[in-house]
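Morning!

As promised:
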Amino acid sequence: ETGVTQSPTHLIKTRGQQVTLRCSSQSGHNTVSWYQQALGQGPQFIFQYYREEENGRGNFPPRFSGLQFPNYSSELNVNALELDDSALYLCASRNRGGYGYTFGSGTRLTVV
Amino acid sequence: DAKTTQPPSMDCAEGRAANLPCNHSTISGNEYVYWYRQIHSQGPQYIIHGLKNNETNEMASLIITEDRKSSTLILPHATLRDTAVYYCIVRVPSSNTGNQFYFGTGTSLTVIP
């Protein structure tokens, strides 16, 4: 049992639209990271939140944004969707001082 | 920049030890080596991590060379359920960018009956 739940599991959107992906972490996991995994590739770091503030970001444009809430849930928002945004989006969380991240099973986003 | 290099694929006979190599020649002194695996259609699963000492847990052993430029993940008795993509990751602690995990493309391990 992963302890990190992502919704929805699959999603189809049209180019130019906006999408919100959701993640529910384990209680006490106050650090959450989001990753994008294209087909056949390893996950790529998008950003990280700690105590509801972004404290790290990978090489992704500003149209990728996020929120973290006090109840250990978080969101990834992507505006102006492009075809290349089609990927598996993974949420990972840990508690402060924890050594490993627990990953969710991801949301498969398809942009058409 | 993945910071790690792994062979793209490996086979292992069921019941035998699987030894998965990883090169991380540019690793810095405060960067940890993590191993995760990803079974098809699932999120990555934590296996083990280390800084400079060898580590062992119920899943695997991690052998890190003295110069820390490479490591080997050992699954002592591979089973069919160990078939997955294995990622060797360098965790970069940073006050500016958070604790990023740099994933490469991993090693696809196939355990053969």
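The interface with chain A takes residues 2, 34, 36, 41-46, 49, 87, 94, 96-106 of chain B (CB under 8 Å).

Hope this helps with the figure draft.
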